[in-house]
Amino acid sequence: MALPFNGIYGFFGNIESKEVADRIIEIKKRPKDRNLIIVSAPEFIDEYVNLTGGSYYSKDSLMSLWRDLHALGVILPAGQKAPFHLRSGSRKETVLSIWTEYPPLRKVMDCFRSLGGKAFVGTSANHSGNAAHFRTHSLWEEFGESVDAIVEADFQKIDKDRHKSTTILDLTNSQPILHRLGNVDKTELKKALKKNLLPSFVESSRLILVQTGE
């Protein structure tokens, strides 16, 4: 289904189902070697990532970053229960987890967990390589009945700089690496890292710059 993600739409489904992940990849026309993301409530992130022996960052620091920023994606060491279809790397397996404290998403997630679910697998709602959708009608025009359901949202009051995919930090090393610059800019990111007594980031040599759909 397509759910609102604090500025854009995303495709989400049950994290435990590889069939769901495969269908999202097919709908997006996404290369099969590019894994999807984990969308988990921050308080349960350690269900799928290793924040003990293999991590430089604590659960509390991650929760604080997600609380202080509009949205953030983080690359972390994979936990033992991380689905194999979401893991990357060979010697050091990692996963990408994204969250935004957005009331509609939080409500859906809390309801899903009350029914026995844990987290979502997902990605931005767009064909691979295109800008993410932030208007319901354009999402419907592009995907139509190939999507089971769309939870409609109005993003008009959200700044247009938020109408794009999420900024991503690689947190598998002692210093954060900025992998993708999206709906959180460098100034915001530096301020949040400093506030939480975390090292500032360095930029990846392959930094991805996300463009808005405007």
What structural class is derived from the secondary structure elements?
alpha+beta
Low-confidence stretches: none
What is the CATH topology classification name? DHBP synthase
The total count of strands amounts to 9
Total of domains: 1
C-alpha Rg, in Å?
Answer: 16 Å
Q: Provide the spatial order of strands within the biggest beta sheet.
A: 5-4-7-8-9
**Name of the CATH first level:** Alpha Beta
CATH architecture: Alpha-Beta Complex
Shape: globular
**CATH homologous superfamily assignment:** DHBP synthase
What is the end-to-end distance? 23 Å
Helix coverage percent: 10-25%
Average pLDDT: 93
Molecular structure report:
With 214 residues, the protein is of the alpha+beta class. The chain has one domain (2-164): DHBP synthase. The protein is built from 5 helices and 9 strands. It has helices spanning 18-28, 59-68, 103-114, 136-143, 186-195, and strands spanning 2-4, 9-14, 37-39, 72-77, 94-99, 120-124, 168-170, 177-181, 202-209. Strands 5-4-7-8-9 form a 5-stranded mixed sheet, with no helix packed on it.
